[in-house]
Design brief:
- There is one protein chain.
- With 288 residues, this protein is of the alpha/beta class.
- It has 2 domains: 119 residues, Rossmann fold; 124 residues, Hypothetical Protein Tm841, Chain: A,domain 3 (2-Layer Sandwich), CATH 3.30.1180.
- It is 39% helix and 27% strand.
- The chain is built from 10 helices and 13 strands.
- The strands form 3 sheets. The chain has a 6-stranded mixed β-sheet with strand order 10-9-8-13-11-12, sandwiched between helices. Strands 2-1-6-7 form a 4-stranded parallel β-sheet, with helices on both faces. A 3-stranded antiparallel β-sheet has the order 4-3-5, covered by helices on one side.
- The longest helix is centred in the middle third of the chain and has 16 residues.
């Protein structure tokens, strides 16, 4: 393995084939469904969870991994030969993962002072966080030093953006992740809200009258940011593969996309976004 190991959380929603190819270690979130305690993408998978969620009479709760979960992962990576670890987490304003990983970092470095661990708050979520882990892993496999990898991630944090829409904000609201989009909760049922992330919290990006109009707005908003520049995109959804194909076709007919893939949100994120969510996570690569 590379001398620098890359670790992230299951909420990054990186496709399994990419995790394997890039040697990215993940730590699973917890989902509390009544008396059941599930581990994200370990004891519960996407399709079965979404099928249940669509008819659920109550909303499960989620919890970030604890310090012990991260400590176990750090130890395992060190035992496998890692000399440094870059630990990449969703926004600290929406999850306790960053704080838990920081505690585990201190515990691990007391035990192995020679092992360097850098814990990063991406101030983002889903495949925005995932893109940072993917590019960090590619850099590690290419032999870049830990400092160079961290610098690369820090450059990505302010320019990696999410846009998503859904038929309802009910799940985001009930899960307490609505952020500054609170006022959109009471909008008419035929309104499709666009949600993004700014400074680590969910924000409204506009509303559309239909999914088709929402997808047009997504493409326009990206064009406003990148112009004729090149971008990388992860198309993300929760049980909405047909919708995500429409977004992909539209966006790639208008923008210069140098790399893209489709990913489905992990159950821990689907709890908050709800079935039918569709959107994208992207960042510009012009000049890089």
């Amino acid at each position: 393995m590379s001398k620098v190991a890359i670790l992230t959380d299951s909420a990054a929603s990186i496709p399994e084939n990419m995790l394997a190819a890039l040697n990215i270690r993940t730590v699973a979130y917890y989902i509390h469904r009544g008396q059941e305690v599930l581990r994200d993408l370990v004891t519960v998978q996407r399709e079965e969870f979404l099928n249940w969620l669509a008819t659920a009479k109550f909303l499960p709760t989620t919890a970030s991994p604890g310090p012990g979960d991260y400590l176990e992962a750090y130890r395992d990576l060190a035992e496998k030969g890692a000399e440094g670890i870059v630990s990449i987490h969703m926004t600290s304003k929406g999850s306790g993962a960053y704080q838990a990983a920081t505690v585990a970092q201190s515990m691990m470095q007391e035990q192995q002072p020679g092992l360097r661990i850098e814990v990063i708050d991406t101030l983002n979520v889903a495949l925005c966080q995932g893109w940072m882990a993917i590019e960090a892993a590619r850099a590690a496999l290419a032999g870049l030093r830990l400092d160079e990898i961290v610098e690369k991630i820090n450059r990505m944090i302010p320019i990696t953006r999410m846009i998503q829409t859904a038929d309802t904000l009910k799940y985001l609201y009930m899960g307490g992740r609505i952020g500054k989009a609170q006022h959109l909760v009471g909008t008419l049922l035929n309104i499709k809200p666009l949600i993004g992330m700014e400074d680590g919290v969910a924000v409204p990006l506009g509303v559309a009258r239909s999914r088709g109009q929402a997808y047009q707005m997504m493409a326009e908003k990206i064009e406003e940011v990148v112009g004729a520049g090149k971008i990388k995109i992860a198309y993300v959804h929760a049980g909405a593969r047909q919708e995500i194909e429409k977004i992909k076709q539209l966006v790639e007919s208008r923008l210069s996309v140098v790399e893209s893939f489709i990913a489905e949100l992990s159950p821990a994120l689907a709890v908050h976004s709800g079935p039918g969510t569709a959107g994208l996570c992207y960042y510009p690569v012009t000049g890089r």
